Amino acid sequence: MILPDTCIAPSLLSADFARLGEEVRNVVDAGADWIHFDVMDNHYVPNLTIGPMVCEAIRPHTTAPIDVHLMVEPVDAIIPQFAQAGANIITFHPEASRHPDRTLALIRDHGCRAGLVFNPATPLHWMDYVMDKLDVVLLMSVNPGFGGQQFIPGTLRKLRDARRRIDAWTQAGGQPIRLEIDGGVKVDNIGAIHAAGADTFVAGSAIFGADDYRAVIDAMRGEILKARGRSA
Predict the structure, then answer these.
(1) Is 29 a catalytic residue?
(2) For residue range 159-188, what is the model confidence (pLDDT) as tens digits?
(3) Assigned domain for 227 exists
(4) CA neighbor of 120 nearest in space, from 146, 141, 97
(5) Alpha carbon of 209 to those of 4, 198, 206: distances in Å?
(6) Residue 99's domain is classified under what CATH number?
(7) Which of 47, 49, 85, 225 has its Cα between 20 and 30 A from that of 172?
(8) DSSP character for 111?
(9) pLDDT at 2 over 60
């Protein structure tokens, strides 16, 4: 099943770190579009995960885009390292940068697509002043730091708001901007999430916690199609 305008991005935070290269190959073979790469620094968020060396290590295992989500503070110094390590997309939290406009430009200057990440309590108005530099807007549907959390229902309203802003921008001649969601995405809620406006879906434990990655990814795409049918 191919839905070219949507992306499923399994989060490596929930993968088996003892065999990370194999996990990347398996999940891409199962139909994943992107690989989501969560970077936590035990400073901006209360957890410590992986850095540029791990990104560089998994890069030879796939041609799929690597979507690096920086939950670090400060962000600018580490961006060139991830670009050199093979990242294709780099997103960060505006609160973690002194100058978000400059940070977005830095990401693009290093050949990557750039995006802002919004925590559940972060207002969307940050994006209004940097639309020309955005390739991705990522909404957190959990508070960042740990996998396996439950989806915050109020995120659906925020997704609809972000979708309106993006659509108004593109209809006025602006570049396409993907609307990504991260946190608690599962087969049973991905349809409602898509209906609210998301086109790119990060899923960690829902995929890596299953025995059959392909079955879960196919089921997610099926729910997206059902949501489209209901809204038609």
Answers:
(1) no
(2) 999 999 999 999 999 999 999 999 999 999
(3) yes
(4) 141
(5) 25, 23, 6
(6) 3.20.20.70
(7) 225
(8) T
(9) no
Per the annotation, the verdict on 38 as an active-site residue is yes
The active-site residue out of 33, 135, 182, 199 is: 182
Percent of the chain residues past pLDDT 70, beyond the cut? 96
How far CA 198 is from CA of 133, 177, 193, in Å, comes to 19, 11, 6
- Domain range holding 178? 7-231
Query: Would you call the peptide bond into 4 cis, given omega within 30 degrees of 0 as the criterion?
Result: no
Q: Evaluate if pTM is beyond 0.85.
A: yes
Tell me how many domains the chain contains.
Answer: 1
C-alpha 132/C-alpha 143 separation (Å) is 27
**Which two tokens mark 90?**
């780099």
d(CA 173, CA 190): 29
Any domain includes 102: yes
Q: What is the pLDDT of residues 24-59, one digit of tens each?
A: 999 999 999 999 999 999 999 989 999 999 999 999
Local structure of residue 41 (DSSP, 8 states): B
Cβ contact 178:168 at 8 Å: no
**2 in a domain, yes or no?**
no
The maximal CA–CA distance of the chain, rounded, in angstroms, is 47
For residue 91, give the 3-state DSSP assignment. Answer: strand
